[in-house]
Amino acid sequence: MKRVAVLYGGISAEREVSLSSGIQVIAALRESGFAVTPIEVNDDIGAILAALTPKPDVVFNALHGRFGEDGTIQGVLDWLNIPYTHSGVCASALAMDKAAAKAVFAQAGLPVADGRVMPVAALIDADPLPRPYVIKPLNEGSSVGVAIIRDGDNRRADIARGWRFGTDAMVERYVPGRELTVAVMGDRALAITDIVATHAFYDYESKYAEGGSRHIIPARIHPDAEAQAKKFAVAAHRALGCRGASRADFRYDDTEGEPGHLVLLEVNTQPGLTPTSLLPEQAAHCGISFQELCVWLVENAACRA
Question: Structure pTM?
Fold first, then answer.
């Protein structure tokens, strides 16, 4: 019987999401016949190393956010020579750094939003771009810290003064239209989901709160845009060097009719596995159960060593 340790929880702003993902994964793997060791991760690396002794056959990485999704825990597992699910050190680090990921996407010929990295303090005095524009932390996921500044919005200086995500931020042109996402398993784009948020945009609460958003799958978009979104998602997965599953998020500007214009926002190398998450929903749409998805991730685990 294969022994699988599930890492979940963590110390990032996405801890609660990871706990929810981990609980589902643990149950699915146990139902599939694996010997599962749950490891709720905190800030004690010694405790994590102790829990991984003796070594399991595979680590299922259900962590989200910093230290779990940015190459940190991946490096530890590579050092220990334990195969793990999802992407390795380099792809994880690149994807989590929005500026680095955008550079990789642009080099690969993928469409990205105009913008730049700038000191957050500079936002106190003036708009860096014509409105509307988006302010993003460089190294957070799940839309943590993201704000859209529109005409008439007077929050800019307050956002800058209350910023807790480092000294710099990514500032980008706001792309109107719709929020689309495409999950990738291996080299296969699964489906396209059109996300309709109940809030002003697809923020943290929209992603994880019950009723926070509606998911339309398959997205009702022009066939050319559908083919292009799937092509771009796989190309982004490959450009970063991802393995296992990933999820590419897009804005689709169809405000002047279809087919509209796609803009790649980011790639998530550790897509959520919660009851409201998009990867398992797309897998189910393609006839892949949650259990089968988790087993596939285990079977495709690897490590650098």
Answer: 0.90
